[in-house]
Batch of 2 targets.
Target 1
Amino acid sequence: MSVGRDRFKKREVAVVGVGITPSGEHWDKGLRELTIEAGFAAAGEAGVRGRDIELILVGNMSAGMFVGQEHVAALVADFLGLNPTSAVRIEAACASGGVAFNQGCLAISSGLYDLVVVGGVEKMTDVQGKWATSVLSGAMDFEWEAYFGATFPGIYALMARRYMHEYGLTREQLAEVAVKNHYHGSFNPLAHFRNQITVDQVLTSSLVADPLRLFDCSPISDGAACVILAPAENARRYTDTPIIVSACTQASDTLTLFERRNICTLDATVEAAKEAYQQAKIAPEDVDVVEVHDCFTIAEILALEDLGFCEKGDAGKLYDEGQTYVGGSLPVNTDGGLKAAGHPVGATGVKQIVELVKQLRGDVERDRQVKGAEVALAQNVGGSGATAVVTILRRGN
Amino acid sequence: MSQRGVSFHWRRYKERYMLLGTKCETCGNIFFPLRSVCPNCRRDGKPSPLALSGRGHVYTFTVIRVASEGFEAFTPYIVGLIQLEEGPKVTSQVVDCRPEEVYIGMRVEVCFRKLREQGKDGIICYGFKFRPADSQAKHE
């Protein structure tokens, strides 16, 4: 079960500063440089001094496999010049960033800490693509999925095939997810890919794991993101535009896809969302802008249904009608999502929060700004759905 | 997938060679792979090993074109979720069948195959795969 309502409501949490690096292939930057860049940007924005920081949380999936470096939290504290501040690395595969954010919120709301830095980082392009594929397959059950030859795209392809079989989603509708995310990404200077693409390009890109093609898959990116958290009552010390965390919840499910109750839904998302809506006292229709975990196009389709934005089986229609673009009724992944903005796995959950904070402040490029956005929701997924984190943010008064 | 020692592979041989699952005597549910704790009954559960029949059908499938390290030689290969007669599903390759021949609902049966070689000096990993249910007659 996710975190109990009353515990979280003890003290309201605010995001008072954000920082982010571009996502992409950073040949000139290692894990420590990326983290410092995002961390300094966030701290600078909030006007926070090092001595004020009480706790550092770092979301990171697999520095050990990607760059041979463990003990990442200590490295980050050291290179940010923050010794002897307590630093903790948090790992939940692709949800590492979201879980770190959740833990940061709990640290503030518990009353134990008054200023917490939550970072997320992944340095993925120092290894060959094939090795990266193998590392990412560790997000599934290594012994019962990867061992038998399943890849991470393959596991999502199994979901896509079954979903298309049950609900009649078309290959074109699936392609529209990537087309829309690239369109949004084209306005985001920090995105990994800034080119717009067509449905035809998606449908003729090379097959990775049928029915998923290359343009259904998020890229392998380097990147880091960081947020500064404080109790809402202190937020004005740091910023004129605090963003309040109305809810942040986390739920778990089986590590393997094959043991799920239903592979066309992520029960962890459903559970975390149910709890988050209760905590925030809102309904799905109150949300103005959404960031979901589109590691593969099918994941965005499942997410919109599991978050309650439409009935199961109906998400494809939102794409026929263009409703998920900025200007539509439900703008989704306004930074380009994982597909176009990039997916530095450990950073992604924090990166989503950074985008939504900027949206709520009215701080993003005009072409992708959701006008007057008051309430935002993020969904971050680990593996094929064994971990899900749902966060609801709102503009502070 | 870096090289791992013999014990890593040997530890699971019963499940991988004989498709050994778990039945909880308390709730009657059947699981794959082995579980020492029944997720429904937890402390009240009585899980015990159960050999699964190896008969089932393809619940969903994909054709892997970009493989993880160690599986390159097999591409393109079919990976499916197999719905077993007894209830649980498993992830497995589907063999003796071309990518264009597999379909959701296809009847399959378990077979014993090489899963992967880990280079010239490495361990050869064996385990279950599934093949079309009539293929035994066809091939013998």
Note: The mean pLDDT of chain B is 92.
Target 2
Amino acid sequence: MNAPALELAGVRKSFGKTAIIRGVDLQIAPGERHAIIGPNGAGKSTLFNLVSGRFGLSAGRIRLNGEDVSNLKPFEINRKGLSRSFQITNIFHNLTVFENVRCAVLWALGYKYSFWHRLSRLNDARERADGIIEMIGLSARREVRAGLLTYAEQRALEIGITIAGGADVILLDEPTAGMSRSESDRAVELIRKVTAGKTLVMVEHDMSVVFGLADRISVLVYGEIIATDTPQNIRANRAVQEAYLGTSVSHDDDESGNAGNAGGGDA
Amino acid sequence: MMAAAQSKSRGRWLLWGGYGLLLGVLPLLFHQGFALTLMCQIGTVMIFSLSFNMLLGQAGMLSFGHAVYAGLGAYIAVHTLNFIGKGTIVFPVTLLPLVGGLAGAFFGVLFGYVTTKKSGTPFAMITLGIGELVAAMALMFPDFFGGEGGISTNRVAGSPLLGFITYGPQIQVYYLVAAWLFVCTAALYAYTQTPLGRIANAVRDNPERVEFIGYETRRVRYLVLIISGFFAGVSGGLSAINFEIVSAENVSAIRSGTVLLFTYIGGIGFFFGPMIGSILLGLFVVVLSTITNAWLLYLGLFFVLVVMYCPGGIAGLIMLQVPLVRARRLRAMLPAYALAALAGVVLLAGLILAVEMLYYHALEAANAGPVMHLIGIELNVLSVPPWIAVAVLAVAGFALLAAARRLVAARWERVTNGLAGGALR
């Protein structure tokens, strides 16, 4: 069998004496759509920050497609084929939508730090960026400054930047946070479309999004994964219900169809 | 689409052609020695401020020590020029700015390695430190830096270009500066249209995200600083030729501060902003410093006003009008602008009157008596009437300003609302 797309072994992270991630083991197969859920403060975002290189590890190893990427810098991990989005929109506000996406394809196309290519002559970069923009549904907003987009458009751009480099492992941090029901439905469709054939790991609060998208779900509670399983089994898992889901799942089921805004702040 | 691209490309040729033509004919319009010297000076400052804006406006790097690269470039150039003069080496003076540029880039490699490890405020602090370090060294090593007096030179050195261009006459220096200015402007503009130039914008906007799309922000900052150091060095080389002297002032914090002022007032958000700033303030400084002692005060006040009320600089103000001009609606704004200009003139008159009288009172009244001459008017600074005039001008100016602000805001709202509907096409 192939190496897992992403493998965490004994991953720990402490800030001072406070242990935030307390030994996480996780294997995610290529092509899998994996969701990480858990109560606020469980360490979901911290886990993403460890995997993407934003924070260094206190202990343990992380392997990307079988290759050790522990404690590499974010740009090094990105070049090895992992890309992430951010919970708080993290785009280039003064650049247009097109420029945002084009910046994100430049490294992958090998232009690196070139100051001898003319951007307007780089047809491959333009075509790829326009393809991404069409995919995220912002073609009509191509020349608009990113800072002037609506919130939902900025979230779509956030995903566009994330996938533009062609990484095969995509980490999405609460992609539907703060969205209305209809917006989040559209976001789910978008995520499904742009991550086809790729490995997706997402942190998400909105249970309808999680159960709609994920092949498998991991439940993170106080820095430990207490269960990793299929959505059906997670729903039925008594320990999970007690630790976290219980009310939340039935709550969401009751209100499905309403504008359930489940996205909150995460520590 | 094709037609649009064609007209865009034609516009570009027109713009650059016009720019080159303007540089070519300027000395025919202003041929006095004083004007030529001034234009040479402004030309070198334009390259300098454009190189500075590569950092500040385009990459978000606030440097307090950019004169280091121009100054050291100028020193290397002036020593090279002296070697050429002695016949030790053979090198065309025409290409001397290239020597300055390479020196600037070299010191960019050296100092940038340290400064660009950090961004934001720490970067600014370190550049300030490096600037002080180099300025201190300029006084510690008189053999290289020439101590207080600096290093002087003679730009007529080596064999003349094409048999007659010796760079003795100022007009020849002008065309040297103009040629280098044109080439540097084109190169600096071209840089903004490259992958590195665009990623530098991304680093300015959001350095963190850049790291997650595969780029090392430190490397971006380092490369940008080296390239910027190159162009700063070119301007240093030109100033060495133009002034035939390079002194510690060339690497001083004052120079670094001046280029910051010029660039910011011109407008850091647009490529041509620093050029406007250099032209206006170059004239401003040279003209004003000959007619008033208070010119630094005026410059400082101008800077503060721009930072507070017009952070886009002069270029920002101009570009705000572009949509109006396109929609042929600028005329609707003109009465409001005229009122604002009137308020500005009245306030300025009051300010100048007060400042000049205070300066006169503080610096010269003790020797020359209380009567001063201001544009041909006799004023007794110890009498009451001139001060009443100041008060009247101030009150009238502020009243006009308040009215102008209301009028501009109201008109602007109406005109731009009209545009928003029309702009959807």
Note: Chain B touches chain A through 27 residues (CB under 8 Å).
